[in-house]
Structures are given as C-alpha cells and as structure tokens.
Amino acid sequence: MGEMDFIIKEFLVESNENLDQLDHDLVELESNPTSQELLGRIFRTVHSIKGTTGFLGFTKLGGVAHAGEHLLSRLRDGALVLHPATTTGLLSLVDALREMLTQIAEKGTEGNRDYTGLTNTLIHLSEGTHVGKDPPVPSKPVSRSLTSATGQTEAGETASPVAKIPPNELAGESGGGITQKQNTRASSRAAAGSNSGPQETPVSRERQAASAASLTGGSLRVDVHHLDDLMGLVGELVLTRNRVLQICQSHSDAASLATSQRLNVITSELQQGITKVRMQPIHSVWHKFPRLVRDLAVQCGKQVRLQMVGQETELDKGIIEAIQDPLTHLVRNAVDHGIETPEVRLVRGKPAEGCLELRAFRELDRVNIEISDDGAGIDADRVRQEAIDRKLITPDRAALLNARDTINLILLPGLSTAKSVTDISGRGVGMDVVKSNIERIGGTIEIESQEGAGTTIKIGIPLTLAIIPALLVTACGGHYAIPQVSVIELVRLGVLENKARIENVQGLLFYRLREELLPFRYLDAELQMHERVSEEGRQKGDDGAGVMVVLQSHDRQFGVMVDQVDETEEIIVRALEKRLKGVPLYAGATILGDGKVALILDVPALARRVCTTGDTVVRDPATRKNDSQTRAAETRPLLILEHRRNERVALPVSQVIRLQQFPRSHIERAGRQEMIQYDGGILPVFRICDLLADGQDRQSDTRPSEADDGKMDVIVCRRNGRAVGLMVERVLDIVEHDVSRRDSAGDHAMVAPAVINGRVTRILNVEDLFCTADPGSRPRPALVNAGA
Amino acid sequence: MNERQQFCSFHVDNLLFGVDVHKVQEVIRHLDITRVPSAPPSVRGLINLRSQIIAAIDVRRCLDLPDRLPHGLFVHLICRTEDGPVSFLVDEIGEVLELAEDALAFSPEALNGRLRECVCDAYKLPDRLLLVLDTERMLRAASAAECGATPGGAR
Fold first, then answer.
1. Neighbours of A618 (CB within 10 A)
2. Is A584 on the interface with B (CB under 8 A)?
3. Three-class SS of residue A260?
4. What tens digit of pLDDT does each residue of A76-93 get?
5. Sorting pLDDT into bands at 50, 70 and 90, what band is A135?
6. Order of strands across the sheet that contains A454-462
7. Which residues of B touch A585 (CB under 8 A)?
C-alpha cells in the first residue's frame, strides 16, 4: 500500500512537471507547426502519462490522454495539419489532466467531472472534421466544451477556449494552491502547478527519461527549508570566520595563520556554493508566460508575439518568488492594455502582430528586467488628469511634471493603470502594489512610455538578500556600517584642506568636490541630533580631519563626514529591535567580525535629511508647504542677495563656489577690469549692478559705498569652468525654492521673478548674467588661475 | 496555602529587586554594549548574545532612579519577554530566593512614582524588602514615558 502511495506521488510530481513543459511546447508548436522534434516530444509526454495512468488504474485520466495521444499521433504522422483549434484542444487536454491530477493529489480519485466532451472534441479534431466550414453537429450530450472549441473556428478565435475550465485556470494562475499547500510535499507541488512546478523544469527533460521512482542521474530534490537552514548556518559561519581571522592576525604564529587562511577560503567557497544552489534562472518565472500571453491574447482578440531574452539570468530563490506576482501583473497589463487589437495596429501603421519583449540581464550586483511592448503606450495627459481627479496631486504641481514623471504617477497608490488607461476593470493588484512588492526586496521600478509607440517597464533588483557588503566607518566613537551599494567614493581630508573646501552657509554644509558643491553633514552631529550634546563636541568635528563618504540615494549625491573608514566586510542584515524602530537613522543592525554589534545606517533617510535644508532656513510658509508635499528635484537652494535699495535677486547655490568677504582695498585694476588676488590666482570681479544692465545710473550708483573701507561680499561662482567673482551689496539668506514654478514671464537676463520670503525676487543665472553684460567685459581666461 | 515561589534577586540603587526565576534566561557579568545614538534613554544599546542581537535596558532609567557613576560596570540579567530576550542592566546580582506567600509585606500601592507602576509584589525578608518587578510592565512604562516626552520617539 505504502509502495503504491509512493509511486502515485512520484507520478504526480513528474506529471505536473511534464504538463508545464507541455504548455510550453504546445505554444511553441503553434509558431512552428511542422517541427517533428516538438511533436515527438509532446507525443511522448502524453503517451507516458497515458501509460502510467493505465498502470495505476486511473481510467478516466487514461481515456482523455488516449484521445489526445491519438490526435497527436495523427499530427506527428502528418495526416493532420495543426490548426489553432487543435492547439486549443490540446491545451484544454493539459488543463483537464492537471485538474485530475490535482484531484488525485487531494482526494486520491480523479474527481467526478465529466470529460467526455473534451474526449469527443479531441476525437473530432483527430478525424480532421473541424477543418471544414461546417462544424460537425455533435451527438446528443452536447458538451459545452465541444461547442466552444469547434465554434471557435468560425468565430475567428474570439471565443475563449479555456473558459470552460475556469477553476483549474484560476488555481494555476493565482496561487490557488494555497489550500493544498499543507498537504504532502508532492501534492503541494502538484496543486501549485505553475507556481512551484516551474522551478524544476530545467531538469525535467532528463527526468522524463528516467524511470518513475528514482533519484535521477545528476539531480536531487531538496526541501527548500533545508536550504534555508543551511543558508542561515553559512551566514553564521561567515561571521565566525571573520572573527577567527581577526584573532589569528594578532597571534601571528604560522600554523594558526595558515589554518585561518584555509578556513577563509573554504568558507568563501561554501558561501558561494550555497548561494549558487539557491540561484535559479529567471526562466522559472518566465516559462509560464508563453501560455499566459497566448491565452490572454486569444481572449482579447489580439495577436502577440512574446520574446524572452536572457532567460538564463539567475536570481536568488527568495527573490524569484517575490517577483513572480509583480511580473505576471505587468505581462498581463502589457497584453491587456498595452498592445492594441490587430485592426487598430494596422490603422496605426504597425504590423498586426504586437511584440512583447522580456529582457533580463545582470549588471554588477543587480539584475535588470525590462518588459517592453510596442503597443499604445500610456497617455500622459490622461494619467495626469486621473491623478488630479483623484486628488493625488494638485493641478499646479501636475503642470510642472515632465512626461516621464507624469507617467510614473501611475505607480501611486489609488491610481491603477487598468482604470486610467482602459475601461477593463483592474485584475488583482494595481501598479502601486507592484511597486511596493518590488521595493520591499530592495528593487526599483521605472516606466518609460511613448504614446503610440509602446511602453517599457524597467525593474532593477538585487541579486540576493541575505548577505551584503558594507563599508565600516567610525563616528561618535562607534562602528557604523554603510551598505556598499550606496557608496560612490571616499575622500580623505586633512585638517587645513578640510577647512578651505567647506562652505558653511547658515548651518548648511557644502563641500567643494571637484568644483561641485556637495551637501554634507557630520555623522557625529547627525547621530547625536536628538541628544543633549555640548556645542563644543560638535565644534570639534568641524576642525578635525576625517573622511568624506560620498553616498548616493536615488538621484541625489551627498556626503557624510566620518572620523575614520575602517574596512569593508560582508554583513548579515538583521532587523532592528522593536524599541529602536522609531529612530530614523538605522536600517538594521549586524554583528561584526570581532563580535561587536554595529548599526547599519539608513542611507535614504540620511539623504532626506541632508539634501533638504533645515526648517530654520525655509522661512516662506508657502515654500515649506510645497516642500512637504513633494520633495522633488525642482526645489533648489537659492542664495538671496540685496541688490540696490529694496531690490532682491537670487542665484542658485549650485552655481556658487563660495562666499567670501574681501576688504575693499583688495580690489585692483587691469584696464577696465577689476580683480582680486585670490587663492594664488587672479579672480576677475564684476559688480552685479553692472551686469544687470538695468541702470543708466551705472556709474553713479555704486560708487558712494566705495568710500568706506569696510569689507564687501564677493560671491565666487563658476563660469565656463573658471572662477569669477560677483560683488554684491549684501548676502541675505539661503532658501529652498521651487525654481520650476514661474510666477510671471521674465526679462532676458534672468529666469522670471518669483516671490521668495514675501518679496519679489529675481532669480538669476550666472551664464545669462554675463552674456547680457557687455561681451567685452568677459574675463580673459589667461588671466584667471583660480581654484585649487 | 503556603506556596513558595522562587525569585532571582538583584540590586539597583540600594534597593533589592526580584524577578520570577522562570523568566530569567541567564546572567552575564560583562558584555560589550554598542551604544545607539538617538535611541530612547532607557535603551543603553545593543549586545551580541551568542549571535543574537538584543537590547540592553537600563533598569535605573526605567524606574526613574538616578544614573550610576560612570565607571560602574553593569550586570546583564537576560530575561525572556514577549518580544524575545532582553538584557536588563542591574548594579549587582543577588541570590535566588525561595519565598513563601506569607512573607508578602504590603501592596505596592504604597509605593510612589514609577516603582508603583512596575512593582507587582513586595516581600519582607529578615533584614530588608524584596520588590518584585514585572518586566513587561516596566518596559511598557518606560517606552510610554519616553514616547510621551518626545513625540515621534526620536529621543
């Protein structure tokens, strides 16, 4: 009895794999109907299922399989030509077989469903009667399947061939195996069908050849839980290895060094090995798409060609599972909403057959997946309107978004593509769920679409989750880990150099890195933000040497100044203690090689704090409100200057290298050009009121102040890669301002005036400023030798 | 009626406390504590307990008692709580005491402040009192106080 159960289990597992392969082969056969190899393979598979069912006594199953086998043998012998209806019939056969197998797995019987209709259809198909114009009038028990399958020939493929077996279809597609999953391992595989089955397909070919109850030649089934346990243990081993290495380095006797090196190598190999075992080709998610796309296309009356590139790209098993649903959703969307019907496509001058391409490729430690179709694309205006109607964005803001940002609005919760792009109601999850699922595993998603030309969805996901390389830094007297993926570069700063290159503008810190202003913070200060730390503690950091860690989060680069950079280490990320979840600084914790606990910095959270100015500087309530709604890239820090009495102008901080005060006596002249000796070179200086050719009173205006021997503010900015100085009356403030918002049209020299801090302020652009000024007064490059 | 219960006793700020011995996982005399800047004050940091990262909670701060002198070493009393093991930092560990119910001295209602929230029983020993701490209540009281003090839990 036990023997029999075992054989049945093996049969179920094998058959399910075979059925998945059948799905695949049948769809392939449709595009390549004369392939003897494919036909042969399909025939053998059905034949072997039939054979085993006969042996096990599942007569109903055997009967259906027999009818299918007969049809296939006629096809193979060339007596019949493959017709879409034939494929549909055969796919129905696969569904029926799968349904019965599920029944067997659950209840041990084939179930009560009547398959005579299907059997008849298959028989008719194999007699070739369906090809004629008039479908054979079936005998009395007119089964629904027969009419649907044969009727389809006339109705031009609009009928839904799979609709007659919905329960199974559903179970196959939407993780319907949930209820069965508690059953035996074999039955869970059987029930989950296209969910878990696919993972074995790469080996299924050999499997077919081997006999039923055996461990086949090269492969062995392993319970996933064992693998997870092993992965955990290897993680611990890696940590222990790190520790041993540290200990051995301090006791340097040859034997222990050699042993520890050996341990090091073995552990690394073991780690790579176990990671590799968990890796699966992305094919295991993709392989069910041909069938899915085919069925959907038939349902929607569309013609879709599916191309898959990079199927062999490998990903960790956990990630494969996590992306399965999002990818399925995106593929459905592409067929359902993206690709047009053949008629529409022809009108638009495209080939009737739409193309859906899946591409996967590895890029360093990430895998990129692209799903592109040549369909209708996304109507940006409609998305924008939808977002406004749903109050997800204000009309003002929406007007500022470029096409690409607008399209990416469909990732917002509450705005689903299904609703905004077509009238077909959404199926299951919306795009926001897709996005959050992808982001949960550390991935990114981006949509590019051109109306009328198609849509490309780009997904980037990490290769593996468990162990990440991290940079260890010292700050605040402790070790902190920064995920290596965020680190762009390290810059070591000496005490003097440090001071010269740092601009402190009302508490906002910038570092001049290759003439770019990089916003940064001292990690010490950030960490102790909320603690009662004495001022001198913070001051100390200002002068001390340190290392600038340049980090990137999304599109923003910023710096974090640390005391010291220690090393890189592979760390296991662990969730943070519940009581510390509220601290917005840490992404997790880890145990280092020396056994100490280190905190992992939350780089995106740091970026938000560094890249948006503190509240003290943003004084304009309107600006602040806008800011909190969307901290998008449009807000830029502006330097506010007083220019003549009662007039304000602003310069983008990004164009400013530094602010400096010079005694007025330092101004020297060379012809008409005023200049200052600065930084070992000569800095040409210009009066901002001269440049703003807005005064006939140019001569008289500024002179009076020259009499006093005080200091003057000079803004050193960059022009054509060289430093030039702008003499201004007074520097007032720095504010975050939404520069893309235009309050009114402006004149030639500058971007439009805006209201900043309740005052009308003209926002200037350094380049325009010089262009409108007398071209003759341009700085002669040969004179200038500024910059470090 | 004379049921006996076992308590693990410990000293904090000249007071003698006890916790149900079944709740205690182990006692560790010295462990490195990794400070967590910006964490709530009662969380002194994180420790590595055989590859498990757990929080070290300062009992003095939980009970609103004055901080110890800076050089004082803590003893880690590792207890099982609803959220997994937690290390309670105490001044010194005492013995395991087996006490009968008739040694119960008074109801903790008589105590003041945070002690009243966190102490569930008080036993009369020959020479002094043993205050029995309810660890869950103490953790709740501490985090409630800290959240209330600085909304958003940033402190």
1. 20
2. yes
3. helix
4. 777 777 777 888 888 888
5. very low
6. A304-309, A354-363, A366-373, A454-462, A444-450
7. 37-38
